[in-house]
Specification:
Number of strands: 4
Strand content: 15-25%
CATH class: Alpha Beta
Keywords: Arsenical resistance
Largest sheet: 4 strands, parallel
Structural class: alpha/beta
Order of helices and strands: EHEHEHEH
Oligomer: single chain
Pfam family, one: LMWPc
Protein name: ArsR family transcriptional regulator
Domain Phosphotyrosine protein phosphatase I: 2-128
Number of domains: 1
InterPro entries: Ptyr_pPase, Ptyr_pPase_sf
Shape: globular
Length: 137
């Protein structure tokens, strides 16, 4: 099972969205967590955008990087520039940077847009990971 950590500044918008979407798509193949450099609370519009897609938000809670201290991940993905350095410090086989605007969603439309953008990246991640794990011959 591939372990993935999503890191953003607040753990209130992008990283919980990414956590919920990857769990929704491939919980059977991924152990997924999210954390923030300076955690706040999960944005209500972000949660509503996930619910609109039929994605469960059960268990999503804002937490800091101290919640994953001492853990090793296969992949750590920073979701904003403010979190990139902190994400690089987390022990992992691979680090990736996907930069989104990590601010509270000021509107439902903005939350839906960010959710769709993250969803597209998550689908690509799963596709690439699946291809790397399966031999063609």
């Amino acid at each position: 099972m591939t372990s993935v950590l999503f890191v953003c500044h607040s753990n209130g918008v992008c990283s919980p969205i990414a956590e919920a979407l990857l769990k929704h798509l491939a919980a059977d193949r991924y152990r997924v967590m999210s954390a923030g450099v300076e955690p706040t609370q999960t944005d209500a519009n972000a949660l509503a955008a996930l619910h609109k897609l039929g994605v469960s938000t059960e268990g999503l809670v804002c937490k800091g990087l101290d919640a994953v201290e001492g853990e090793y991940f296969d992949i750590v993905i920073s979701l904003c520039e403010q979190a990139e350095a902190a994400a690089q410090a987390v022990p992992a086989a691979r680090h990736m940077a996907w930069h989104f605007e990590d601010a509270p969603c000021c509107s439902q439309a903005n939350a839906t847009k960010i959710t769709q953008e993250i969803y597209e990246r998550i689908k690509l991640l799963v596709l690439v990971q699946d291809r790397q794990e399966k031999t063609l011959w």
